[in-house]
Amino acid sequence: xxxxxxxxxxxxxxxxxxxxxxxxxxxxxxxxxxxxxxxxxxxxxxxxxxxxxxxxxxxxxxxxxxxxxxxxxxxxxxxxxxxxxxxxxxxxxxxxxxxxxxxxxxxxxxxxxxxxxxxxxxxxxxxxxxxxxxxxxxxxxxxxxxxxxxxxxxxxxxxxxxxxxxxxxxxxxxxxxxxxxxxxxxxxxxxxxxxxxxxxxxxxxxxxxxxxxxxxxxxxxxxxxxxxxxxxxxxxxxxxxxxxxxxxxxxxxxxxxxxxxxxxxxxxxxxxxxxxxxxxxxxxxxxxxxxxxxxxxxxxxxxxxxxxxxxxxxxxxxxxxxxxxxxxxx
Length: 330
Ligand SMILES: Nc1ncnc2c1ncn2[C@@H]1O[C@H](COP(=O)(O)OP(=O)(O)O)[C@@H](O)[C@H]1O
Ligand SMILES: [Mg+2]
Description:
By secondary structure, the chain is an alpha/beta fold. Helix content is 36%, strand content 23%. It has a domain of 84 residues.
């Protein structure tokens, strides 16, 4: 029997109070991350990736409601009491945001920022925390760590600050890191360096990662498994290499055809129309209005997950169209 995954979301719905009614932001999301595994959560902007991560951290804004089950190491995250929740957030999991500058207090030094959490929770005393922060800073390629500890966030470049955020995430030795577009806000020239450092660190420490990005190619390159999200729902999950070699959902296939690396300009328009939010989707498949394979049933009836070739794919026609998707992609 395979052991239970370290982290599992089952049938998550997130709803937002809106003008006397409710608006669905995330619908029926299920995914899991095993110990030591990296999983990519991929989708266009607005598809519900950050809302799902916020639900997993219990950081959803007021007026939103999460339903379903989120389990970490067997515990039920959505019902954790105040103390357990604090422990979960400070020791078991860590979150790396897209924009480091928006998540650091500009009036505190880097050293204070890095050490106060672990000191506050009693995990380390100040001297230990400082020593460990310096060691981690060296690990992520920050030279002159002792001097950096006395600096303020505005004195650091975006790339350097994101390395500080990686140090902050690693410092309490969490078992799972949620990385929400960790390099998207950085200059293109430093994106790959920061990504490489993050990967090296999580691999060395065997930390699990849920890696959120809009970039399917990047996610496929750095993760073991992928979950592809569209309009608040996951449309395809499976092993990363298999999905990028042979996508089975038309949306995944469209994302792969959009990649500039395929060089042909016509493919940049491979997905016609615009992405929709979960609440804008009709009764049928949310991708139907943009799908070249959509038939009447797709517009009328929401597809359930189907198991095929070791994947989970939410498409009525997946068996029929699988081989045609591959032809189109080649
Ligand atoms: N605080 C909020 N209030 C209202 N709507 C929100 C809020 N946060 C996110 N949304 C909406 O939820 C949907 C998913 O957003 P999000 O998870 O941030 O997308 P992304 O996949 O780009 O991370 C979007 O339609 C977005 O407009
Ligand atoms: Mg986001």
